[in-house]
């Protein structure tokens, strides 16, 4: 199973949108996908599930056994025609696991994920911080994607996230590879955004900025609002986004 962590130390950059977009892109290809929602806000969970179960990723963090994770995993309620996506749901109480207690405590999600079978891809949606939950995700993953936006503070956030990835690589997870940085919500014909994209290339190197960049498209809000995979909208914008998601997925699976 390939496991990818989607992270950023800010909210609203598009982590959840990218998580769900990659999940449905992979399901369309016939892959079995598990979305792991490590954000206490649980946005991915509420988009994928209308019913709340009694067991969540919080139980897995407390007791990372095969029995717990199997009990917590639930099928997603999106139209089944898109393929198989299951979700390891979040719970607001997982915020208590975000306090950093040292690297000796890491590895719970990794252990639980290693105990299950039948998935080709696990996508971990991280909280908007670089605390213990994001470190759990980076410990469990072989791939990481940093999501940012073309803003002044975007570059700073990416710098911090890169440092975090290096620390995990040098410590608990030498197998972790940066798939790249996704520059999201990019406006065409904006000098400011062109400048921020160029700044990011300078910061991370051309090969680490995933191409193409992701344009700002209303399709993301439409998908969210209607509870459908973005690929199912069938609009011009959604088709454009779907193509880009496919290109990102190729890199995650490589
Ligand atoms: N490329 C995009 N174009 C337009 N809106 C977007 C794009 N990506 C994300 N959004 C919107 O931005 C908001 C925040 O995205 P979200 O994925 O929830 O961010 P995060 O999980 O990082 O907090 C959502 O309303 C989402 O629909
Ligand atoms: Mg989110």
Automatic annotation (TrEMBL):
<dbReference type="Pfam" id="PF13614">
    <property type="entry name" value="AAA_31"/>
</dbReference>
<protein>
    <submittedName>
        <fullName>Unannotated protein</fullName>
    </submittedName>
</protein>
<dbReference type="InterPro" id="IPR025669">
    <property type="entry name" value="AAA_dom"/>
</dbReference>
<dbReference type="InterPro" id="IPR027417">
    <property type="entry name" value="P-loop_NTPase"/>
</dbReference>
<dbReference type="InterPro" id="IPR050678">
    <property type="entry name" value="DNA_Partitioning_ATPase"/>
</dbReference>
<feature type="domain" description="AAA">
    <location>
        <begin position="1"/>
        <end position="176"/>
    </location>
</feature>
